[in-house]
C-alpha cells in the first residue's frame, strides 16, 4: 500500500507539540522556501508545555498559562491538527489520528517526525493504576494542588484523629528532579497554608519522598545530592532511599520495607516511559525507545525521524553505547537537528549527526534554596537558585511566558502563597491512565483495519487538495 498523492509537494508531518516537535516545526518554518513543502503538526494540546516548572504550578507559585506556550504564537506557517496520533503505518506512510472531538482521521506523509514524548512510568504494583497521579500534564498539576488543599480542609473539619493522620500524610515516589522538586514545593505550600488552619497542628503534616535508588538525584554527584537531602530533612521531609511501594489502597500505602502509612495522596514520579505510540510502529527499540541513527532517522523506515523522549538517540559526545537522556535540553536541540535533516531529505543533500554536550543540571527547591551544576560547576543556595531560574526563563520560548513566569515568582516572593481550590477538576477521575490517556493507542492489526477502510472509502470520496506552506 502506498500513500495517495495529490501533488508533488513533499508532506512533512510532525507528531507532538512538545520541546522536540515544536522546535522542529519552528526551525522548518524559518528554513523552508515558500511552496517547498506542506507542513503539519499533530498535537492534542494547543500549547508547548514547559514540564520542568510543573511543580511550581502544582504548588500555586506559577499559573498554568506561565508554563504553557501557545503553539500558534510560535508557528505561523504550520497547520495544527487538534488530536493525538494513535497509530502509525510506515508501509502506507500514514498516521491514524483521533481528534479532540473523537473523530478518527488518517494523515499521509513523505517525511514523518516522531516526537510523541513520554508518559509516567508504571510498574506492576497493586493499586497504582487506581490511586496514583503523576506530574506530566497541566491537568495533573491542577488536580494535585486542589487535592492537597482539600486534604487540609478535610483534616481541619474532622474530629477523628485517625482520619486527620491519613489526610495529612503525603507520599511522593521518585527521587529524581521531578519528584524532589514536587515534594519540596508542595511541602512549602502546606507549611505556609497550615498557618491559616488554627485547629491543625503543623507537626501533623508529614511529607514522604521515597526512591528505590541508594542516592537522591545521583546525576548531581554526591555533594549536591547530599545537600539536597540536607535541605529536605531540615524542612521535615522524610526521605527513604532503597525503598519502593508494595501496595496502594484508597487510604493506605505499603512500602517494600514493611511500613504502612495511612494516606490519601500518592504522587508518582518514578521515571518516564516512551509514549505507547512507539509500539505501533513494530520497529526496533532500546528500553522502549525507538532505535535511531545519529542523524535521527529510524533504520528500515523510509522517511521516518524520531527524537526526544521516545527515541534512543546516540550520545556521540560520551561515545560507546551511551544514549542521550530524556531531558528538555536535549529534546529542544534534537528538534533543531531534525529540522536540518528533514530539509536535507527533502532537498537531497547530506544529513548531519546530532551532537550536543550537556550544559548541566538545575534543581529548584523553592525560596532561595536550590542545587545546580552548570557546566560542571557545583552551586548551592542563592547562586544556584539564580542559575536555575535564569535557565528556565531562557528556555521558555516567548517573551510573554518569560514575563508571566518572572512576575509570578516575584509576586509569590512578596505576597506569599494563596490556598484556593479551583474545583474544575473535582469530578475528573484522578488516575494516570485518565490524565495521560495511555490506553488510547491502536494495535498494528487495528491500524491496518483503519487503513483498509480508509482506502475503500477513498474511491468514493475524493481527497481535498493540500496547500503548501507560504
Automatic annotation (TrEMBL):
**Keyword entries, A-Z:** FAD, Flavoprotein, NAD, Oxidoreductase
Q: Say if the entry is tagged with keyword Oxidoreductase.
A: yes
Upper classification of the organism: Bacteria, Bacillati, Actinomycetota, Actinomycetes, Kitasatosporales
Q: Which SUPFAM superfamilies match?
A: FAD/NAD(P)-binding domain
Pfam families from the UniProt entry: Pyr_redox_2 (PF07992)
| Chain ranges of the FAD/NAD(P)-binding domain | 11-335
Q: Which family does it belong to?
A: Belongs to the NADH dehydrogenase family.
Question: What is this protein identified as?
Answer: NAD(P)/FAD-dependent oxidoreductase
Amino acid at each position: 500500500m502506498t500513500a495517495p498523492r495529490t501533488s508533488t509537494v513533499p508532506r512533512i508531518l510532525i507528531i507532538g507539540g512538545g520541546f522536540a516537535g515544536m522546535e522542529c516545526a519552528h526551525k522548518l518554518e524559518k528554513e523552508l522556501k515558500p511552496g517547498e513543502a506542506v507542513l503539519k503538526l499533530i498535537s492534542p494540546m494547543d500549547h508547548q508545555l514547559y514540564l520542568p516548572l510543573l511543580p511550581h504550578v502544582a504548588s500555586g507559585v506559577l499559573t498554568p498559562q506561565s508554563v504553557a506556550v501557545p503553539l500558534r504564537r510560535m508557528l505561523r506557517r504550520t497547520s495544527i491538527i487538534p488530536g493525538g496520533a494513535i497509530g502509525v503505518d510506515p508501509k502506507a506512510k500514514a498516521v491514524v489520528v483521533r481528534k479532540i472531538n473523537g473523530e478518527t482521521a488518517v494523515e499521509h506523509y513523505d517525511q514523518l517526525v516522531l516526537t510523541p514524548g513520554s508518559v509516567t512510568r508504571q510498574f506492576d504494583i497493586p493499586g497504582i493504576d487506581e490511586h496514583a497521579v503523576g506530574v506530566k500534564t497541566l491537568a495533573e498539576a491542577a488536580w494535585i494542588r486542589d487535592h492537597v488543599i482539600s486534604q487540609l480542609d478535610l483534616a481541619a473539619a474532622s474530629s477523628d484523629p485517625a482520619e486527620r493522620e491519613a489526610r495529612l500524610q503525603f507520599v511522593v515516589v521518585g527521587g529524581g528532579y521531578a519528584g524532589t522538586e514536587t515534594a519540596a514545593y508542595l511541602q512549602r505550600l502546606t507549611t505556609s497554608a497550615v498557618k491559616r488552619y488554627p485547629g491543625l497542628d503543623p507537626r501533623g503534616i508529614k511529607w514522604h519522598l521515597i526512591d528505590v535508588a541508594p542516592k537522591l538525584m545521583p546525576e548531581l554527584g554526591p555533594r549536591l545530592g547530599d545537600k539536597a537531602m540536607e535541605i529536605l530533612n531540615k524542612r521535615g521531609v522524610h526521605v527513604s532511599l532503597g525503598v519502593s511501594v508494595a501496595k496502594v489502597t484508597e487510604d493506605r500505602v505499603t512500602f517494600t520495607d514493611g511500613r504502612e502509612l495511612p494516606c490519601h495522596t500518592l504522587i508518582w514520579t518514578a521515571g518516564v516511559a516512551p509514549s505507547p505510540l512507539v509500539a505501533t510502529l513494530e520497529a526496533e527499540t532500546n528500553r522502549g525507545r525507538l532505535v535511531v541513527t545519529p542523524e535521527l532517522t529510524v533504520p528500515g523506515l523510509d522517511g521516518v525521524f524520531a527524537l526526544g523522549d521516545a527515541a534512543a538517540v546516540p550520545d556521540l559526545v560520551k561515545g560507546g553505547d551511551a544514549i542521550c537522556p530524556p531531558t528538555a535540553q536535549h529534546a529542544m536541540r534534537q528538534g533543531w537537528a531534525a529540522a536540518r535533516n528533514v530539509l536535507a531529505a527533502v532537498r537531497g543533500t547530506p544529513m548531519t549527526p546530532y551532537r550536543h554536550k550537556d550544559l548541566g543540571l538545575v534543581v529548584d527547591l523553592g525560596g532561595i534554596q536550590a542545587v545546580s551544576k552548570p557546566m560542571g560547576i557545583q552551586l548551592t543556595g542563592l547562586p544556584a537558585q539564580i542559575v536555575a531560574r535564569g535557565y528556565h526563563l531562557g528556555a521558555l520560548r516567548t517573551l510573554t511566558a518569560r514575563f508571566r513566569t518572572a512576575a509570578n515568582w516575584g509576586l509569590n516572593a512578596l505576597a506569599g502563597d494563596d490556598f484556593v481550590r479551583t474545583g474544575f477538576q473535582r469530578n475528573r477521575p484522578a488516575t494516570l491512565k485518565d490524565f495521560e490517556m495511555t490506553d488510547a493507542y491502536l494495535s498494528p492489526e487495528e491500524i491496518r483495519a483503519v487503513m483498509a477502510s480508509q482506502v475503500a472509502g477513498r474511491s468514493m470520496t475524493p481527497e481535498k487538495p493540500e496547500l503548501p506552506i507560504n
